[in-house]
Each structure stands twice: as structure tokens, then as C-alpha cells.
Amino acid sequence: MILFIAACETVPVKQETTVWDDPLWQKHYKLLKTFEQYQIKGRIGITHPDDSFSSNFLWQQQEPNHFTFRMYGAFGQTYMILKVQPHLSTLDTGDDEHYEGVDARQLLYGVSGWDIPVSLMQDWIKGLPTGINKSDLRINADGTLQQIKYLDYVVDFVRYDVAELPIAASGDAGDKTIELKMPDKIRIVQNNGAQGENKIVLSIRSWDIAPSGD
């Protein structure tokens, strides 16, 4: 089921932070771990020291390291489609060119010149800090993630909105849903030292979360 998120340019005030063992965060964290399949739509803005680009995007996650990332224009024209599987990534451009490689990030960078950490973003998009040291996290008082620091990246979760998480019910009650706060604006900054910063901003318009096991 899809939640459409209204655009809003108001910059939210940062919350007070809490600790890893906070019950609100632990509950939220465990719920994020219950699903792997999701689809999001929105806008992506990419800024490199000497270049910038923005487009619509569609991200469809099937399972870990198995996803599709499409960037496209206002009238639906495809700029590129990146399809990632554990041992092969393919990239097709709007000019009908086809490329293949093992490392999705390197493939995307080699063809487009955009350095996008797509493999890391699988969990970052969800607000899930997989593999991140607890000391490199900031957790909001409401139990959501505020910031991740990882290698030369700083990821800020600027804003959240409510999406619906399907939950299988017992007996004949049918499926139910619960409300879950999901990111609707994420800022990723990579510090390249003397070469400058790479910035990626994801503004998410809709979340579609599949029930666990679908």
C-alpha cells in the first residue's frame, strides 16, 4: 500500500538525541528489520564539485543486494536503469546502451560520472544503520535515526513521515497495517578532501512496503 507524502520546504528543528538502548528506538529498529521488499518514488539531486544533476527516481528493493534503481525525467523518459543482483549489475541508458559489471557503484560511476553508494543506500533509505558502529549514530528522541557517520560519509535524515507497514494477522482476520515513520528526506555528503564534497539529496514522495514473505 502506498502513502503519498506532500512536499514541504520547511526545515525541521533537530530533535534531542537518545541512546541505542532506548525502547522507542529498539521497537522502531526491530520493525525496520521485519521487511526487505519495498518501493519508493521521489526526486534525487546530485551535486559534485564541478557538476550537478536532478531527476525523478524509482527504487524497487526485492531482497538484500537485489534491487532496481531508475532515474527518469518529468515526462517519463528514462535516463538510466541500474539493476543489481549479488553477482552481476547491469545498466541501461536512455540511448539504448547496455553495460555490465560486478560492482554496481563502479559501473554507475564509470558510465554516468555520478558517485552514488547504491549498495550502502539499500538500508540507509529505510533509516536502518546496518553495520554502523553505535558511536557513529545519532538517534532521535522519537526513536528514529537522525544521523550516520560511515567512512567518509555523513548521512542526515532530515525529515520523516508516516507510512503503512503490513502485518500478517492470525486466523481469518486478514492482513493489518501499523504506522511506521519512514524517511522522506535524506542528505548524503561524502567528503573527498581537496577534491571537495559529493552531495546526494533524496526527497521521497511515496513508500510502498510489501508484507514480509511476499
Number of helices: 3
Q: What portion of residues is helical?
A: 10-25%
The helix/strand order is EEHEEEEEEHHEEEEE
The fraction of residues assigned to DSSP E strands is over 45%
Structural Rg: 18 Å
State the end-to-end CA separation: 13 Å
* Outline type: globular
Main sheet: strands, sense, barrel? 13 strands, antiparallel
Unreliable sequence segments: 1-9
Report the average pLDDT across residues.
Answer: 90
Which structural category do the helix and sheet elements fall into? mainly beta
- In oligomeric terms, what are we looking at? single chain
Number of strands: 13
Question: Can you give a write-up of this model?
Answer:
The chain is 12% helix and 50% strand. The protein has three helices and 13 strands, in the order ββαββββββααβββββ. The chain has helices at 23-32, 104-112, 118-124; strands at 2-4, 17-18, 38-48, 51-63, 66-72, 78-85, 88-93, 98-101, 137-140, 145-150, 153-167, 176-191, 197-209. Strands 1, 2, 3, 4, 5, 6, 7, 8, 9, 10, 11, 12 and 13 form a 13-stranded antiparallel β-sheet that branches. The protein is globular.
